[in-house]
Structure formats: structure tokens, C-alpha cells
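Progress against Task 2.4 (sequence-to-structure conversion) is shown through the following example record, which the project officer requested during the mid-term review.
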Amino acid sequence: MNSAATAIWARSDTTLIGAGPALRVDPGTGPGRYRRALQALRDSGKDLAFASFTFDAGEPGSVVEIPESVETSGADQAPFERTWSGRVVSDGEAVWRRGVSRALDAIGSALVEKVVLSRQVDLALDSPVTMRALVDGLRASEPGSHTFHVAGLVGASPELLVSLRRGRVKSVALAGTAAEPDQLDTDKMVREHGLTRASVEDGIGPHVTSLEIHERTVKRFGQIRHLATQFDGQASPGARVLDLVASLHPTAAVAGAPTDAAMKIIDAVEPKTRGRYAGPVGWFDSSGDGEFAIALRCGFLDGLRATLYAGGGIVEGSIVEAELGETELKLQPMLRALGAR
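C-alpha cells generated for the chain above:
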């Protein structure tokens, strides 16, 4: 992997690496940010860009990274050698507990059916992190995930938001999380998953001429298991991956249901904006094809500081201690990769 990589996207046996000087573009805010991102790539004369969008379309800070060139490599990767370590300076637990309490009150009052709340954990690092090595470490520990680095945001997401390749659309709805398979076989988990599945189906529907919805399964990523539903469709003529991203995001997996009500609660109870956490992250090309995950199991690195994120869906019947344990599980990949306990 090129040590001068400006951005990285890796999944299964394929890795895309941005090399050489990169043009960094801010596509702005609002629903037009996806259209402006594609136009920026086409105006640059390059073929492919990496992108990381903010969770809230109204928040600035989205990034489109257009490298001088893009290298493609296979499954081989350098051995992971960590030369840094980190320590937790704020675990975010107390703030998160207060947010869950308020979310459960809103659910009990029938203001919302599901709210996805994030926990933010701050780390101090003893030396700078080499992004290439960090990505290699995450790829090794989280097989099957979508591993990424775009402008300081790095992680290994299990959740494919959408891909569009040669007219075929694919998406995977993940919701319902546990360490053991039998813990997923509950009414609460199935109900939570159903809300996400419905939101994905609604988002994809306007952009396909046919859609196959597979049976719900259990997928494992590292030490975590999720209920999963895969969608495969034939894209409508002229469809572009960023059109699908705009239609899908935010799904009930990262916001809640109904979306508008859930977003208001998130704004009210989370102490900081999410930035690009839980936003779409991936790549797209000038023809409109591309692949985007949801930025999960990730952190934002800035010098010797890092902020890690983990979220969980709160619904009727959610138990605070169980939800806290879920966030602990989701934090582990980044904590291990950064050498923090």
C-alpha cells in the first residue's frame, strides 16, 4: 500500500488507494451536496473520488477527495505494526446514559419509535498514527468490513449503505446487534431490524426497476453479530450512486424512526454534533458508479487526539446496561487498533 496514500477504501479482496497530490473539495450542505460532489469530480477531469459526508446534511464539513491517481491492489497487505498507544481521557458514558433516559421518555410518550444515540470517547495518543498501518490493522481484525480513511476519519464499517456497479444496485440493512446468535432472537431485535429494513426499501425503491429482498440472516463481523437483510436491484436508467445515497441517508440504522422526530431528539441530547460519523463514506466515479458504507466502527484522528464513536438503537424495551454493552463491543475494533484499553 502506497505510504503517500491520501485516501483508502478496502473491502474483501480489493483496495482502492488515492495517490499523489489530492484536490480536496467541500460540497457544501443540504440535499444538493451530492450533486455538487459529482460535478466537482467531473470538473477536475479525474475519474474517481473518495468522499465522506456529514451525518446531518445541514452540518458543514463534508469532504470530497480527488487524488492525482488511484491505485488498485488485491488482498495482500503489509503486516500490522503499531508504533503508538492511546489512553482514554473521556469515556462518554455518563452523557450517553442521560441521553438514553431522555430517548426512552420520548419513546414512552409515543413521540418516536426508535432513536439511535451515539457515544463519543476521547483518546490521547503517545505518538502520531500512520494511517496506512492503522487501516491494515483494521482490515486484519475486521474481515468482511469496509475499511476506509478519508481526511482523518478512519474505521471498518460492517454496513454497506449502497453500491451501484454496471447497473446493479446492492444494499445491506444491519440492525440488531449482539455478541451471540441467540441474543438476536428476540422481539425487540426483530422489531428494531424491521424499521431499518423498511427505511432501506423505501430509499432504494425510486431508483430501481426491480428489487429482490433476501431473507433475514445473521452476519458476523469480528466479535459482533447483526441481523442483516440484503437488497439487490436493477438500477433505473440514468441512476447514479450519489442519487441513491441521497435517497437512503439517514436510514433507521443510524437515525431512528420516524426520521424527522429521531433527528430532533439526537440534536437535543447528544452533546456534540456527529460530524462525519454515521454519514456516508466511500468512492464514486465520473460515470456515476460507486460504493458507500455508513461510517461506523470509526474514529476521527487529529494529531495526538482521537475521538471514537459507537451507536445503538433505542426502542421500547431497551435496557440501558445491555445497550451500554453494545457500545462497548462496537468500540473495541478502534480501541484495539489504537492500543487503548
